[in-house]
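Supplementary Text 2. Reproducibility record for the structural model of the 173-residue chain.

All settings were left at their defaults, and a single model was retained for analysis rather than an ensemble. We include the record here because the model underlies the residue-level annotations in Supplementary Table 4.
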Amino acid sequence: MRYQAVVLGEEMQGACDILSVAWQRTTSGNDQGHYYDVNIYMGLCASDQLGSVFEDNWVPGTKTLVFSTDQLDLSAGVNEWEPITLDAPYWYGGQQNLLLEVEWGSANTSYSFYTWKWDTGAVRSIKAVDLAAPSGIMSTQMSELQFTADLDLEVDTFGCIKTLFIGGEERGE
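Retained model, structure tokens:
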């Protein structure tokens, strides 16, 4: 299975290191899901809407593997968020649209872990049942996503900050 969604730049809160991504479980399905050969990618998308071809939605050179595991076990109560901590933080520069892609080779079909979606009014997600499919089914329905991130804050010494407040010289970098 392959799923891709675009998060608009104005929906993000500026530049940050993304540490995790979470999905919110619905009232239907099971309270757990088991997925195998899972990869999550993040990168940039130049458009506010996705085309049907997965690779065409990436800004060239930005697709980054941020999470990979042989087995992913999800478990959450109704309306709880299920976070996945990334293997390494993903630096999001705060300007363009963020593209998220999740791939999994197989799942335990005895369990169905359903998550909330919302109608975006535009084609903001695509999915394909076949992992190798170059294109997918376009949809205005997109998973509700929650990102945990460290905001981009400049690191300064107390002396530098004091100088800025009293109108001193510009700092040298």
